[in-house]
Amino acid sequence: MQKLNPIPLLLLLALAVLAILLPAVPTSIVTAGLNSGDTAWMLCATALVLLMTPGLAFFYGGMVNSKNVISTMLQSFVAMGIISLLWVVVGFSLAFGDSLGGFVGDPRTFFLFRNVLDGKPWSLAPTIPLALFAFFQMKFAIITPALITGSIAERINFKSYVLFIVLFSLVVYAPLAHWTWHPEGFLFKLGVLDFAGGTVVHMSAGWAALASAIYLKPRKLHAAEQVLPPANIPYVLLGTGLLWFGWFGFNAGSAGSASPLAVSAFATTNVAASAAGLAWVLFDVARGKKLSALGFCIGAVVGLVAITPASGYVTVPVSIFIGVVAGITSNFFAHLRSKSRLDDTLDVFPCHGVGGMVGLIMTGIFANKAVNAAAVDGLAYGGTSLFLTHMLALVLVSAFTFAISFALLKLTDLITPLRVSEEEEDQGLDVSQHAEQLLVNA
Asked: In the predicted model, what is the mean pLDDT of the chain?
C-alpha cells in the first residue's frame, strides 16, 4: 500500500488560503498605449507556446519504451500545473521584478501577481498588458524543466522530479531569464542577443540534462547494452507537429507585437526547422543508415532550437545555413553519445544543449541590425564585439547551469531519492509510480 503523505496537499491548501488573503485586486487597469492587434496576436502566441508542452509530451512519450510512456508524458503535463503556480507566486518576480544587482529580480515586486493586472506594460513590450507579457513568459518557464526529463526518462522517482523542477525553476531558470531579458540583467547589459530563449531555455535545459544524466547514472538496460524500440513513432510525429506549430508562438511571439519583425521570426523558424530535419536524415544516409521518421523529427526540433536565439536577428536565407549546421552538428554529437556510457535517454544535451549553443554562436556571427534595429551586426557583417560577447555568455551560462543543476540534484537526492529501485525500473514507471498502464494491441 502507498505510504500516506499529506504534506504536498497541505502546502497547496496553504497557498490557496494565502491567495485569498492577498488577492492582488487592481486599483485601476492601465489601458493607455495598448494596441488591440498586438494584444490579440500575443494572446494567440501565448496559447501556441503552451501547446508546445503537450507536444513535447508526445514527442518524448513516443520515444521511450512502452513501460514508461505515461510517466514520461505526465512529467511534461505536471510541469504545466506546478510551474504555473510557482510563476504566479514568485517566479515572475525573480525573473522580471526589480533588479537586484543585475542577477535576479526582487521576489516582492510581483509576489502573487501583485501589481500585475494593473501594472504598466513591460518596457520591451509596451503595447500589450503586463499580465499578458507575464503569462507569455510563463509558458517558457513551463517547458524548460520539462525538456530536461528526456535525459532522465525511465529511471527517475516522480516525487523527486517534482522537487527538482521547482528548485531548478527558482535557482537556475529565473536568474537566467533575468540576466538575459531584463533591461538591468548583466548579460542584457553586456549586449547578449537571445531573441526567444536559445540561452535561457535550451542551453539551460541541455546542461541540466547532462548533469542529470551523469548524476542518475545509466539505466540497467543501457548498462547491459540492451536497446528497446521506441513505443510509438506516430506519437513522435504528432509531438513534432505540435512543437513545430507552437514554436511559431515561441519565436514570432517574442517580437512582442504583430509586426514585420514577428513575420521575419516566423519565416526563419519554419525554414530552419525544414533545413535541419533534412540535414539530419541526409547525414544519416551519408553514413550508411536508412532515412527514418524518427531522424527527421529530431532534426526538425534541433533546427527549431538553433534558430530560437537568432530568429529575430537573421535573414531567411541565413536560417537555412543555421538549420543545416545545427542538424549535422547535433546528429554528430548524438552519435558520439550513443557510443559512450553516458545515458542521456533521449539525447537532450546533443539536441537542446548543443543546438542552443550553435544558435547562440550563429547569432553572434549572422545578426544584422537591418533585420532588427535593436541588434548589432555580427561577425559576418564586420562586428566582432557581439561574437566575443556571445562566446563569453556561452561559457558563463554553461558553467552556471551545469554546476548549479548538479548541486540541486544532490540536494534533491538528500531529501528524497532521485532514482527508483531496480525492481521499479524493471516494472516500468507507469505502473510503479502511477499505477497506470498503456494498453498495447487492445
From this structure: 96
Which pLDDT does position 356 carry in this prediction? 98
Backbone dihedral region for residue 112 (phi beyond 0: left; psi -120 to 50: alpha; all else: beta)? left
Counting beta carbons within 10 angstroms of the beta carbon of residue 66, is it exposed (0 to 12), middle (13 to 18) or buried (19 or more)? Answer: middle
For the cut 70, the answer to whether the pLDDT of residue 441 exceeds it is no
Residue 442 has pLDDT above 80, yes or no: no
Q: Are 68 and 130 in contact (CB under 8 A)?
A: no
Strand partners, 105: 99
Burial class, 25, CB count within 10 angstroms (exposed 0-12 / middle 13-18 / buried 19+): exposed
Q: How far apart are the first and last CA of the chain?
A: 28
Give the integer Cα–Cα distance in Å for 386 and 392: 10
Grid coordinates belonging to 142: 513551463
Q: What is the pLDDT, as a whole number, of residue 1?
A: 58
DSSP 124-190: TSTTS-HHHHHHHHHHHHHHHHHHHGGGSTTTB-HHHHHHHHHHHIIIIIHHHHHHHHSTT-HHHHH
Residue recorded with cell 513575420? 263
Cell numbers found for residue 338? 550513443
Residue 220 confidence class, pLDDT cut points 50, 70, 90: confident
Distance in angstroms (rounded) separating the CA atoms of residues 408 and 414: 10
Q: Is pLDDT at 248 greater than 80 in this prediction?
A: yes
Q: Across-strand partners of 99?
A: 105
Per residue in 357-401, pLDDT (tens digit) is 999 999 999 999 999 999 999 999 999 999 999 999 999 999 999
Q: Can you tell me which residue has the cell 510557482?
A: 86
Out of 1.10.3430.10, 1.20.1600.10, 3.40.50.720, 3.30.450.40, the CATH code matching 35-419 is 1.10.3430.10
Residue from 437, 408, 380, 1 nearest 165 by CA: 408
Q: Domain limits of the chain?
A: 35-419
Residue 282 has pLDDT above 70, yes or no: yes
Alpha carbon 199 to its chain's center: 10
- Alpha-carbon 238 to chain mean position: 19
Cell of 34: 495598448
419: which strand partners? 156
Q: What's the grid cell of residue 376?
A: 548589432
CB atoms within 10 A of CB 204: 33
Residue in this structure with the C-alpha cell 538528500, named with its chain if needed: 414
